Amino acid sequence: MRHLKSVLCRVWNAGGLLLAMTVLLWPAAGTARAEEATTPATAKPGEQVAMTYKVKLKDGKEQEIHCWTYLPKDYAAEKPLPLLLFLHGAGERGTVLKEVAKFGPPKMLRKGQQLPVIVVSPQCRKDCVWEPDELLPLVDELQRQYAVDPDRVFISGFSMGASGAWNVALADPERFAGAVPVAAGTSINNAKTLAKVRVWTFHGDVDELVSTANTAALVEAIKSHGGQAQVTVLPKLGHMSCDAVFAREDIWKWFLETERLKKKND
User: Fold this and answer.
1) What is the pTM of this model?
2) 197 contact partners, CB below 8 Å, separation of at least 6
3) CA-to-CA distance for 181 and 200, rounded, in angstroms?
4) Can you list the alpha helix ranges (DSSP code H) found in the chain?
5) Share above pLDDT 70 across residues of the chain, in percent, rounded to a whole number
6) How many CB atoms neighbour CB 178 within 10 A?
7) How far apart are alpha carbons 147 and 138 in whole angstroms?
8) Mean pLDDT computed over 215-232
9) Using 50, 70 and 90 to split pLDDT, how confident is the model at 41?
10) Nearest to 182 by CA among 202, 199, 164
């Protein structure tokens, strides 16, 4: 059985947010460790499957990324579909892949719900943060392996994952049709770059960890640079607002209907 090598992770500050979160426990029956995903597997339409992808980094080295991968029931090679890359929060880091399915789309899929887009939910290594230099090559690999519509690729995440989503969008905004950060912000100084990608961000109105006002100001700044951005404040919800966001029908309709603002030469 192969294991991840120790990798030094740099920490960047997406919005001045450092979270100390209470981790919710999930019964340990049937625990699937991330390294077990190295066993040869094939993505199956209608099922969420543990997969490992090898990506090539800028320095030429290869990195293994363990993910949950879901293809919709009607997936077909001749019918490209939207891709949603969902990034979990700080509490789900490590090597136990089932931790990733505690919140959001991977949780919905774990419970048997069917979704209309390709969903890939990677796991961040322990004590690390999400790195655009690893995630952008992952998107490349997913587009090589699956029938992904290049004009409908989305980046999303919750809490630490939302900070990662902001940073991935900043690293290559024209790559994505939209960014959907949930419960995290980024610097207002990034507004001009974020005007190149559609943004729909969400916050609970009683979030005790993240300032909704700061994100509202960021959205207005993006608009001032000609961008398309909106913030939705969820009533009576605190920081743990992820499940409520993806329970909305309108977000899945948005993923299906939205295309990137400026198309790159693919």
Assistant:
1) 0.84
2) 169, 173, 174, 176, 177, 178, 179, 227, 260, 261
3) 7
4) 104-110, 132-145, 160-171, 191-194, 212-224, 242-246, 249-257
5) 83
6) 25
7) 15
8) 97
9) low
10) 202
